[in-house]
Specification:
Elements (H helix, E strand, L loop, with lengths): L8 E5 L2 H12 L7 E5 L6 H12 L13 E5 L5 E6 L6 H6 L2 H7 L2 E4 L12 E8 L5 E8 L1 H15 L3
Parallel strand pairs: 2-5, 2-6, 4-5
Antiparallel strand pairs: 1-7, 3-4, 6-7
């Protein structure tokens, strides 16, 4: 059962499949211009969550880590785009600007792994998800919404997963 307060939502995953399923629920809620920021150590489940987000959003393309490409673009049947940015290899926020970050934001939702490396270019309103290890395949994810849109997104996600109480 999650630990709840008014804004934050802590989710405990016991397997990669469960992490993917959370992503599917989240992906069904994202729109153009939404920014999902992921923070966590290597192997903590960030790309696994993105696989679910892309599936729930309706991506036709397989999801892989963009560590070496920096940005992967996934498409949907209606020609919409979902951007998957890996900031691990970026030296600073200025590098993200050279990737035409603003264009990506104007054309679709964007999910950013290692978002803490480019905080200076992130919009004030976003959803921040921190990952931590709790066991071999177990992860804790803390969802921290910044802004009304993301508070409503997290509240809807919480209600979808656990119902009203």
């Amino acid at each position: 059962m999650p630990i709840l307060d008014n804004r934050h939502f802590e989710f405990f995953s016991h397997s990669p499949d469960q992490t993917r399923r959370l992503g599917i629920h989240l992906g069904g809620r994202i729109n153009d211009g939404d920014v999902i920021c992921l923070e966590g150590k290597l192997g903590s489940g960030k790309t696994t969550l993105v696989q679910g987000i892309a599936q729930g959003w309706g991506a036709l393309d397989p999801v892989s880590s963009p560590t070496y490409l920096i940005v992967n673009e996934y498409r949907r049947a209606d020609n919409q785009r979902l951007y998957h940015l890996d900031a691990y290899r970026l030296d600073n926020a200025l590098d993200a600007e050279f990737l035409d970050f603003d264009r990506m934001l104007s054309q679709g939702p964007i999910v950013i792994e290692w978002a803490e490396r480019i905080m200076e270019v992130l919009p004030e309103q976003h959803l921040w998800i921190s990952f931590s290890y709790t066991g071999v395949e177990h992860r804790a994810m803390m969802l921290k919404p910044e802004g009304k849109r993301y508070e409503m997104m997290v509240d809807g996600l919480r209600r979808n997963l656990y119902g009203d109480f």
